[in-house]
Write a structure and sequence with these properties.
The complex is a heterodimer of chains A (about 300) and B (about 300).
Chain A lengths: L1 H10 L6 H14 L1 H17 L5 H22 L15 H22 L8 H4 L8 H28 L5 H32 L2 H16 L7 H4 L5 H8 L2 H11 L12 H32 L1
Chain B lengths: L13 E13 L2 H4 L2 H7 L7 H4 E13 L3 E5 L6 H9 L6 E6 L3 E4 L12 H11 L4 H15 L15 H12 L6 E5 L7 H16 L3 E5 L3 H7 L2 E6 L2 E6 L1 H38 L1 H12 L14
Parallel strand pairs in B: 3-7, 3-8, 5-6, 6-7
Antiparallel strand pairs in B: 1-2, 1-4, 8-9
Helix pairs in contact in B: 5-7, 6-7, 10-11
The chains are: A mainly alpha (about 300), B alpha/beta (about 300).
Chain lengths: ~300, ~300
Amino acid sequence: MHAAVRRIAFRTKRTQPLEVAVASRALAVWEHRKVVGLLVRRDLKVKYQQSVLGYAWTMLEPLALTMVYFFVFGVILQAERGMPEEAMAQGGFLLFLVAGILPWNSFGAMLSEAPRAMITHGKLITTMKVPREIFPMATVGTKFVEYLLTLPVLLVFVVVLGGSFSVMGLLVWLPAAVLLQFAFGLGMTLFLSSVNVMFRDVERMVRIITRLLFYGSAILYPATMVLQAGIPEWLKVVYQLNPLLGIFEMHRAVWFADFAELTPTAIALWSSVVGSFLMLVIGYWTFRRLEMSVLKEL
Amino acid sequence: MAQPSTYETDGAGPVIEAKGLGVKFAVNRRRKRSLREMFIHGTKRDPNAEGNDFWPLRDVSFEIAKGDCVGIVGKNGTGKSTLLKMIAGVLLPDEGDVSVHGKVAPLLELRAGFNDNLTGRENVYLVGSLHGMTEKQLDERFEEIIDFAEIKPKFVDTPVRHYSSGMKVRLGFALISQLEHPIMLVDEVLAVGDKAFKLKCYAAIDRMLANERTMVLVSHSEKDLRRFCNRGLYIRNGSLALDTDIDSALTAYNEDTKAEIEERKKRDEAKKKRAEKKSEGEKKPEGGGKKSEGGEKPDRKKPDPPDGGQ
């Protein structure tokens, strides 16, 4: 017990316990929430100002991709056979794709920007005294707003394709999916942004990993197709341990809440909850751990 | 503590207090440490901690009272800017502590935060807010800022990437001189703009200093230092060599510089002599062999007295 107390005191340098240090840091971040808002607004402004079509572009790209995927996976490879028959009336494979690709798009964009979240703000970080977490948070915040901006498009698809609104979907799956996605994303961003300052290779690695995660998280096909495939049981468990699988199944369960095949399994559900939380803790811990070195490198 | 400071104001206590400040940079760390070690031991346990560390600053302690204007002098690379960054809180010391009472305006980089794609107006609002100014304050002072920066009205809503570098710095200075933080940290930024603008800057700084504000200034310009500062810290080889009034600090710095120049001159002379001797030696082959090694790579330490000169 005594040793444990001393260890904590050593870690935080000052004599305050770890929880107090984290809490006071969280408070400092809260006090600077305005700065996060400013950075988010600036990023959005810059992004939409430079192009004529602005907002339309962020929609056109995923929509074009959706059409390609629909053609390749739906029509040619017939991934829609993994969907239950009755679900076809509620929007079918096209809604299934859109509901997964739109949130993925903002998540993938977040991952690709995460490694540079600290580096691009190097000048600001070395001149302004704010809690450094602010900068990764701003990156995540920007992507969150961009995600919100995709919702109207999704709604258009839901209405046109005849999707159904359900209480379970809107009050349980949607908030859970958004919360977990951005908790996981924030953890990733904190982790990647700090590590990338020390090892720039991270940036390249992330590009490959994002690809893998895209195909591994059942964005383009129902996860049941893997779970019913003739592969070893342990491989199926490993497949479901990917927190993103559960998260993106939740995104689609919003519109297909009544179908057990299209909602996350127990393992996928728990791994997404626990995985997101763990990622957040690991990300934050790494970020704080590397903070001193990062400030010297920038 | 060792010597009574004459600069303390009564009762209020120091505004900036540094105790045993030290910061280290590891040389070649990236190549020698594995990812695993980095994560398990963080920054604390470096496998090759001994010998590979470089301390730009170590064991620096001082106190700065309210209303002081402190100039930091010293050679390039002695850690002046590092010290400023630690006071600003944007670099964390490895040793010791620095406590600052009051809000700090870090004027370390005039253009920091300006986004090239945003217009001058947007940038003023953005950076102003980042430094804690309210929208109302900015509305009130916007005209003044633009006027001070001598930005023509037609450029106010042009993206900053089309500005000349002079315009950007002027805008930066104009904005930052509106900050009302009680402590200002300045890193060489006084030397911006053309002659006329510089004069305006000086006036603005005088005005900023007027109401009991504290300033720490890093500069190589003796004129600037003498003009604003009442106190000088002389940093030599990473430690605080002198903490006195600015004139004594500058005098000490100049003396050291002079000594250094002398030494370099001597070294150069010795080198030249050796080279001469070498070329002489080449003409007379019997003496050439033994001196050639010394001639190729002159000693970097104090030159030996030219022994065999005659």
